[in-house]
Specification:
The protein has 534 residues and is of the alpha/beta class. Helix content is 27%, strand content 24%. The chain contains 14 helices and 25 strands. It binds S-adenosylmethionine. Residues 44-45, 66, 68, 78, 326, 339, 342-343, 366, 368-369, 371, 392-395, 398 line the site of S-adenosylmethionine.
Amino acid sequence: MPSLNWIGKEAVVNHDKEVPFKLLKKVKTASVGENSENLIIHGDNLEALKALMPHYAGRVKCIYIDPPYNTGNEAWVYNDKVNSPKIKQWLGKVVGREAEDLTRHDKWLCMMYPRLKLLRDLLAEDGAIFISLDDNEVAALRFLMDEIFGENKFLAQIIVEANRRGQTYKQISKTHEYILCYTKSDDIQLNELSTGGENLNQKDEFGNYFARELRNRNPKFGRHNRPNLFYEIFVDPKQVDGDSNYKLVLNKTKDSIAVIPKNSTGKDSCWRWGRAKLNEAIAFGTRSIFATKTRNGEWRIFEKYRKETVKPKTLWTETEFISEQGTNLLRELDLGEKFQFPKPIKLIERILQIVTNKDSLILDSFAGSGTTGHAVLDLNKEDGGNRKFIMVEMEDAVAKDITAERVKRAIKKYGYKDGFEYCELDKPLFNERGKIEETCDFKQFATYIYFTETQTNIDPKKMAANFIGELHDIEYYLIFNGKDENDLDASFIKKLKPTKNKKVVYADRCLLDDDTLNKYGIVFKQIPYEVKVY
Ligand SMILES: C[S@@+](CC[C@H](N)C(=O)[O-])C[C@H]1O[C@@H](n2cnc3c(N)ncnc32)[C@H](O)[C@@H]1O
């Protein structure tokens, strides 16, 4: 597979591992409601994504990001040339002296690479990531995504008609943007979109339908890997209904014709249905399934598809997706002049409809005016869902006064039921002396410990006193009560579960002898020296 190289790449490919783990601090006065699971985080998303990992690794169903397009337009409220002082400082630190020679494309790639790696780790196995951008970086991002997510995880490159007039000063006026979509694995089932019946372009006495070929047209599948879906279907060439469709029969007869699935090159492919489902459909006659004969004598089998949904397409030209709609909505909230180029809410709702279920978690780590959070609340109101969002915004002038303020105003104006917690990135977990930061509380530390031990997220409901969770017959305990009170001693033995499981116990000191540790299957890990750096 060809890969992309740029100045500074070497310095950033593993940078996600070097980012210090920071704690998150809730800011009650900037939040709405109590203990909402929606989060708005103020901070650089590199650190914020890392901070989210112990809580959300592998749990995010849909990521939508709209990073700087790298157009060179300096006038935006955030700096689109990737020249923002914070990012510049970061590049200088990570890439070193080479950073002075970076072109704007190198810088953008350096900025995106470690962030995309963290986003991939946060994504659920059945999740998908959608990234808005335009011609400036679409080619580069495609290479980057192929490298980080895998070429075979490419889902689509959607074209969105973003404006109707385009740039009249250009020879060819640009009117579109892209949304690049990748999945985490093959284990994903996207939702179809409701059409209100428009897709059903044929009619019989039972209503409208769409004739959908029964042969599986996906070139990935065929007789070789779906042998159960390769079988003969029998057509009765004498039985034709009023619409000239031929009937199928359950078993071979003297006159029946056997049809097998072949792809366009004549190779054996497979059907979409197994035999049992087909037999059920045959019982309903041509109301559900029928055959046609082409002019060159080939037999084809069709399902009468009556569902009012269609697969999403790669060309999105609806008026509600025109960029201006984003600004119009911000104006309704009296924030129209504060943020340029917000995305249209319906564009993000469309993505949510395709990827999410009613209880999915959605992440946007380039939050801007907070359209993603607003879209989540709006869709929940429309379909009774309970989706949750996490948004991250770096700019001081944006996070509280635009991102959070927009969602706050939207909640009030449109009567959304949910709220959000506003968080700041706090101190690193390990202070400069390598000790655990004093403000770190038991739950934060337990979440971190459990994640570094198991690579899975803690279940707070299972935590009890010092017990923080168990996985694969290993129990994990944390003694972290306060300064100088964190000893593993005889009193702790009474708190252990009476099981034969191995018990990993984190504490400052161990006052038990080796025989006792062995007797109870305890493995002592000393804080902070044996706390893994993530
Ligand atoms: C194109 S805007 C997103 C607009 C957003 N989709 C909307 O509808 O309003 C990109 C946003 O990402 C923010 N941003 C850029 N780099 C960031 C970073 N490293 N961490 C967090 N936010 C960042 C910018 O400040 C800007 O607000």
